[in-house]
Amino acid sequence: MPSTTTNGTTNGVTNGANGQTRPYPPGLPESSFLTTMNGAPVQKPAASQRIGNNLRATLLLQDINLLELIQHLTHERIPERLVHARGTSAFGWFEVTDPIDDVTSAAFLNKVGKKTPLFVRFSTVAGERGSAETVRDTRGFAFKLRTEQGILDWLFLSTPVFPIRDGAKFPSFTHATKRNPESGLPDHTMFWDYFNNNQEAIHFLMFLFSDRATPMDFQHADCFSINTYRFTKADGTFKYVKIHVKTNQGVQNFTFPEATKKAGEDPDFHTRSLHNDLDAGNQPSWDVYAQIIDPEVAEHYPINIFDATKTLPFEDFPLRRFGKIYLDKNVHNFFAESEQSAFSPTNIVPGWALTPDPILQTRALAYADTQRHRLGTNFIQLPINKPEFSFTPLNRDGNATFHNLGGVPNYFPSSFFTYPPAPQYAQPDEEHWQGTVIDFESQLTDADFVQARIFWEKTLAKEPGQQQHFISNVAVHLAQAVESVRKVTYAMFTRVDANLGKSIETATESEVAKNAAPPKPPVKAMGALNIANLEAKKAAHGTGHNAGIFAHKKRNLRA
Length: 559
What we know:
Largest sheet: 10 strands, antiparallel
Order of helices and strands: EEEHEEEEHHHEEEHHEHEHEHHHHHH
Oligomer: single chain
Structural class: alpha+beta
Number of strands: 13
Mean pLDDT: 89
Low-confidence stretches: 1-11, 547-553
Helix content: 25-40%
Number of helices: 14
């Protein structure tokens, strides 16, 4: 609620979006004159010092207020995220709903009813920071849980599978789904050519071109860990785990025409929907489930649990609920909190651990590294990212250092400081490394099309109209690729289902024919102009600002 002064007036600012009064940030006075950066008062903030009392650009370098305003303005933007650039955020909490302490010793999961503060950033993946939010894309759900043992980041996506399983393909996949480097335009030929040559992504494509990739908003979408993690215990035992987060608002998606229309009418629709929802006092929520995988079962299971292009069947690995996520509060400062928030799968706590999942291992390198590029080496010291407690005397200096530990030795060990034993977990006996170092790249097999076929023949078939929507969604997009690429794509979908490949071909070629440019009309010859004609035009248009400003030598145009 807005804060109230002693005379009953509200201390806040009106939000133009809905007319509500929003509280000022804590510690801000009710009124204040403007100052320069160093705190000196500014008498006329909108004035600029100049020679003479008139509107001329003879400005003075001694005008400190003007210099500061312009110099700060030109440095306000920071590099946007390479992926997940377009996003919005909120605060809430995670609550344990069911016991899970038989498979993990994580302190934040040790008691039913226990609550952990949480921050989330929702996002699209491929679009730039100002792009429309309802377009076809995967959605990112990045959760930052402030546990008693440190910050835990969950980096989940709205599709249960990923398009690649070899980390070295990350750059190519990212480039192919963005703009053409020559024209700066979206390039559908480039997009489909990449996936034609990396067909392990077929399961991902089935989700991407279903209506699941155009959710109505973030509140009405599920998300998934995609990667396999580990629940660990203090004795060194562990279980593999995949996380599923299911919305309690019900899954609701736009069709492609609806999403396209909304993108034109309100490109900020997802951000506006969440902001208004929370402003209205609603608390959207999601149930959190785990698929628990025993290590011995994983070793003999026909599906590689570290293959991010595959899912694990519920009949063999049923969902086990253990928590719930609630959101209840918008951010106070979008830039400071949403834009400067930094996530990484390396932000783990005891009880939660990484695995040999190749994509997860690659993300562990990329995520923290990109934050150092965007925000600086001390991004972890920003309030939105800072844990309640950390002691890192070996990490010193760098831009924007706020907490540098002074005289604490910046080396280890030291005779001048006591380092008690850390409450460390026993090392799990998960892996025994022995073998030859090779350059390995996974190969495409018929098994890569099995789950895509199940999704087509069983999942979409049960949802009225969804198979036809899928065909139409692919056709509209693929029709913008060149013919040679389209033919290979038809063959790829034929490996999923023969009728699907043929249906996509028919629908796509129909779109191509419909979009074919009509023949251009012949260009009419331009009539010669002469002074007599121009004088008549001038008389019709009236005298303008064009008279007498040309100094060309007169030529005989009256002929």
